[in-house]
Amino acid sequence: MTDRRTGHVLLGVNVLVLGYLPAAWQSPLLAKDSFVDPRYWEAIGRTAERGTLDAIFLADGPVLGDPAYDANPIRLEPTVNWGHVAAVTERIGLVATASTTFNDPFELAERLLSWDHLSGGRAGWNIVTTRGAAAARNFGLPDVPLRDDRYDRAAEFADVVRALWDSAETGREVRHHGELFRMQGRLRVPPSKQGRPVLLQAGGSPKGRALAGRVAEGVFSAELTRDGAVEHYRLVKRLAREHGRSPDDVKILPGLLLSLGSTEQEARRRSDELHDAGPASYSVQWLSQSIGYDASKLELDEPFPEEVLAAPADPQTFQGSMGFRESIVAQIRRTGPTVREYLKQTRYTGSGHSGFVGTPEQLADHIEDWFQAGAVDGFNLQPDVLADGLEVITDELVPILRRRGLYRHEYETDTLRGHFRAGSPSHGLG
Amino acid sequence: MTAPYLALGLAGPQLVELTGDPGLLARWDRLPVAFTVLGLDRIDGSAPASQTLDSSAVGAVLAARTDNGRFLVVASPQRDHPYNLARRTVSLGHLSRGRSGLLIGARDGYSARTPDGASAWGPPLTAETAAAVADAVRKLEQSWPHESIIGDRETGILVRSHEIVHADIGGAFPIAGPLTAPEPPTGASVLAGWGPGSGPVDLVLGGASVVVTPLGAQPPRDVTGVLLQAAAEQSLGELLGAAEGLLAAGFRPVPAGPLRTALGLAPASRAVAGRAAFPEPQPYPSL
Predict the structure, then answer these.
(1) Locate the Luciferase-like domain: which residues (chain A) (predicted)?
(2) Average of per-residue pLDDT values in chain A
(3) How many contacts (CB atoms, under 8 Å) link A and B?
């Protein structure tokens, strides 16, 4: 590929509450309960908007993990939280995650469209299914349905939601008699400035990618290597085309874990200090969940045994993300680290999502490289600590990207769908 | 006898007006009424109006754009699960700094119909089911005490998470819990029911103590509170004007502050300790 890609990258920030590292809460910039303080959330929205970012994302699941050492498992409800932030901002897009496993499509369709109307057309819905028995027990079930069943429900759920959003425009009732949902009715919510919320999809399983190709306008993916990212980029764009859509209708934004400093050394020191301030058991637990194997049973100073790297016995019951597992195993196979080396190495390179430790200038190089390679339409940046990491994105990274002609100077569109459509056309699809 | 307080009941079209007009919103925020119900027509048996908005989405806007106004979000278990509802309720409790509460009705007039008339989650659409929702929301909000957040940088412990308990709710909606966020610092949200048989709530609307008066009718004076309800075809301006008139004519102004304080309600009583959701956190080694 010799031709240089035109247009600008899309930039989102995945707001993992206080930051993706467990020790984020220990930042001197934060109070002990900042994670539920409206001023904290308002500041996130305003800082992102100052950087003319495209969107801020909020992950979610209807279950509480242990918050003893980490604010990441603590979750205000995303449509309410982002509804609040939308009310104090004007241009930034906002994406809320909501489960198709444990919501009702009519209720969620009405709530999302209401929020979209109230935000002036800046809402997005990240469509996910929910894993884990702990979440199921909050809904009177002993365990969640099998993966394929969850995705079948997600597909029908999304169809019902889209039909209901149509009904708000046309005033005509929806009569849905599907495998899983039966209802008759319509929404009476006024239309939003962008018509309806933008749909995003985050899973990396085959059914997840199929759903993305059929309905999603954005994919929040997990990529560790540029080659893998190029392959998945082309796959999802091709799936979109097979469903009669333009490849430009679906934007691909992998997550990127960040620790930034004014020198590479400073960035590494920041990352090390934050990692050392958090519990080691976290990385081991995280790895266990991600690969479907109890990593505490592994010898820390031995390489990963082959049987651990082999596919999980039953993909239907494996509780982790298939996309994450795939990218982790590929990375381990490539470098053959010991378990301890891998866990420490992921401090700098990311795990599941790719990671970046360095300066804003180097980050701009990385973004430009992947963008020009046709691996991404943009990135969903995940700072280690939002309280100061987001300021660096807004005040240092964005100006560099602007100087390189990779990012806009002012908002030129005012809805989330408008922001997505203003991004660069798809690249390298032949 | 002290004069009654005034509360307002909005229908769907007035939710659209309130959130779409900064002037009306500022006027609403200045009114010293006890609270405003965001979409009473959703659960009072009315036919659906031409327009409405999800009540919690409206609440999120009010929490951010106003300083004083208090409100009740309206919901029903017809299509809403109590775990999801409790999450939105506790979130609004934090974001509004205690100015919000929840009104639970048995049926949602705006909801889609199902062939067998069933709810999305199974239980029948009765007052008993609405009461079960109130019970679940209260227990879930209290499953994580706010005091457990310590943020101790010395030990690396953010939350004494062994103080968080499973809710272990049975009956119509079996829910293990705990909730995904702590109880607001202002305490568990005010829960309201509609009419008799509302169950374990802080406030019953439409009963003998808080009387519902249609906009245009003469409200009683020998009650605790009067809920002035606008019909769908009446304007928000008319409702606010009438409220301003009644407050000038002797209805009791309620000063700014959390909803629970405004209604003179004691902190919600807490159930006996439940099953710890997590082990007691200990200082930890790093890798």
Answers:
(1) 36-375
(2) 92
(3) 220
Whether A292 and A249 map to the same domain: the answer is no
Which residue reads 């709710």 in tokens? B169
What domain range is A323 assigned to? 269-346
- Average pLDDT of the residues of chain B: 95
Residues A168 and A315 in one domain: no
A430: in domain: no
Give the count of domains, chain A.
Answer: 2
Is A184's CB within 8 Å of B92's CB? no
| Chain B closest-CA separation from residue A375 CA (Å) | 33
Shared domain for A75 and A161, answered yes or no, is yes
- pLDDT at position A224 is 83
CATH number for the domain including A69?
3.20.20.30
Residue A397 shares a structural domain with residue A332: no
Cβ separation B287–A184 shorter than 8 A: no
Does the structure show a pLDDT above 60 at A313? Answer: no
Q: Which of A346, A373, A400 is a domain's end point?
A: A346
Distance from CA of A272 to the nearest CA of B (A): 11
> Long-range contacts: A279-286, Cβ < 8 Å, 24+?
A279/A22, A279/A69, A279/B156, A279/B284, A279/B285, A279/B286, A280/B284, A280/B285, A280/B286, A280/B287, A281/B284, A282/A22, A282/A69, A282/A70, A283/A343, A283/A346, A283/B287, A284/A343, A286/A351
pLDDT tens digits along A228-268:
999 999 999 999 999 999 999 999 999 999 999 999 999 99
Interface of A with B in 131-170 (CB under 8 A): 134, 137-140, 164
Q: Which of A346, A368, A398 is the last residue of a domain?
A: A346
Same domain, A194 and A324: no
The per-residue pLDDT for range B143-169, each reduced to its tens digit, is: 999 999 999 999 999 999 999 999 999
Residues 141-160 of B with CB under 8 A from A: 144, 146, 149-151, 153, 156-160
Please say if the pLDDT value at position A96 is more than 50: yes
Question: Based on the domain organization, do A134 and A193 belong to the same domain?
Answer: yes
- Write the DSSP string, B4-72: PEEEEEE-HHHHHHHHH-HHHHHHHHH---SEEEETGGGTSSPPP-S----HHHHHHHHHHH-SS--EE
- pTM of the predicted structure, to 2 decimals: 0.93
pLDDT of residue A285: 75
Contacts of A340 in chain B (CB under 8 A): 287
Q: What is the pLDDT of residue A1?
A: 46
Q: Do A128 and A197 belong to one domain? A: yes
Q: Is A285 on the interface with B (CB under 8 A)?
A: no
A184 part of a folded domain: yes
The CA–CA distances, whole Å, from A413 to A220, A416, A418 equal 21, 8, 5
Partner A, chain B 34-53, Cβ-Cβ below 8 Å: 48-53
Same-domain check for residues A155 and A119 = yes
Answer yes or no: is A427 within a domain: no
Percent of chain A with pLDDT over 70: 96
> For A380-386, what is the mean pLDDT?
97
CB contact under 8 A, B176 and A87: no
CA dist A106 and A174 (Å) reads 11
Residues from chain A that touch B98, judged by Cβ atoms under 8 A, are none
> What pLDDT sits at residue B287?
61
pLDDT per position as a tens digit, A111-148: 999 999 999 999 999 999 998 899 999 999 888 777 77
